[in-house]
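Quick question about two entries, pasted in order.
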Amino acid sequence: MNFLTNLLSAPGLVGDRRRQRSGVVKTDHEIDIMRQASRIVATVLKEIAERIEPGMTTADLDRYAEQRIREMGATPSFKGYYGFPASICSCINSEVVHGIPSRKKVIRSGDLVKIDTGAYYEGFHGDSCITVTVGAVSDDATQLMQVAEETLYKGIEQVKAGNHLLDIAGAIQDHAESHGFSIVEEFTGHGVGRNLHEDPSVFNIRTRRLPNVKLRAGMTLAIEPILNAGSKFTRTLPDRWTVVTLDRALSAQFEHTVLVTETGYEILTDRTIVQND
């Protein structure tokens, strides 16, 4: 889950340079708990991806996510966070981040839908986002979604102890731009653990505006590039949460909670290892 830099001054945000540190290293016990929190998130997102269909509302998805998170012994990370009213962020087509679920938002065939959610379990958070296509979608939407997911994994491939945030950012930027897509710059990934947002900010472009933190084994990062089909610029709707592309072009996002290891990484929110009931 990203946050608006002009609304909040929490760690992990662009421009919050004074509070940037090296990131929190977790103990083995804490990592085990984060695996469980992240597995809950992965399960919920996998189930939503399998169930979403035209005619549903984003409120339907939110209700389902909250029910499943609580059934698995966790609480929704997002609900009530800085006043956010729901358990998921749901964004359709040109909506970028922080979309508020609503009974009035009906999902239609051809839509590109982003679902971001988190679970708080025994003192720790997991955080992840997916983009899914609903029904018959355009080739342009399919390509954007595919490249957005590839871009996330290009960044994750750079995760290992001794590498730096700029290694992640450079891989993300190069892959996205090589396919002609822009990266939304004012939102970043972040550390995640006891707090939903921790240091450091995990940026998605090469920049000197934030510290180029060296990665250490035991750090847990939420890596989450956002790609637009058109301009990188966005605006916030009057609800003060929902962000949309300025030119109304499509937007796609994927996010994983990732553990830094000595030799590489572990994707804690990996949906491919979740078993169906």
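Here is the second entry:
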Amino acid sequence: MHVIRRIHFILCLALVFVLGNGFVLADQGDNLPHVVLTQLPFHPPPQPDYAPGEDATPAPDILTPQEQARLESLLPLLDGKQEYWAMGEFKHFGKHSVPHLVKALKMPGTRIRYNAIETLKMIKDPSAVPALVEVALEQNEESKVRSHALRVATRLDPNQVIPAIAGMAKDPNSTIRNTAVFEARNVHRKEVLPIIIGVIPDPEQYVSITARDSFWILTRFSGAIHDWEISTPEKREEWSKEWWAWWEENKSRFDSDAAPAKAPHTSANSDASS
């Protein structure tokens, strides 16, 4: 019985092979139809006739007491199903919303405070930076709120966030330290460079690597080649001496206000870190 099944299987394979060859040979005959490529005419569909949109009503120059009370009443809505609508309302009133949103930074509810920071980012008023710096330095605040406060403050006015970066770089929370040295790369000021070097020996490897990368972005100095992936805090402490030595040699090339647009020339043995 087993032999018969194998014979049937072989016969089926042979039949498929013969028929397949026949189709190929038939396909290669001289009686194939002649194919002519043509381009059919194309007419684009008619475009919809939209009426021109209306411009949004501009925010008033001076708010009435009723409008001030309305903004105050919107603060609790920053946490809930209407949070995006409330954020849009604050955005519409622009700079008039800033004092109310600054007040929201101290309200209970992590979501309210986070959305207040996000709304301040949309309004883009640098007058909110001191309040954001205060939130970033508040050790009892949630890490995600502190980190977001520093990110937004840096984008609104990087010249005002150096105290926050300096304080957060020494924070017990490694996430906060990492945020500080990451945002420092957006602050083109001489004062942030020693702060970054001070974090290179950080106990957490990922924080140390972030500090190293931020320093390179600002100065194009990367130090000698080291294996950071398997480094220890002791090794990073030793390596950081290269950065301090470079800083002592080159800090006079930086003016008192900002890091130069063109980075100083690095020494010959300063290769990219692995």
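Reply: The chain has twelve helices and no strands. The chain has a mean pLDDT of 83. Hope that helps.
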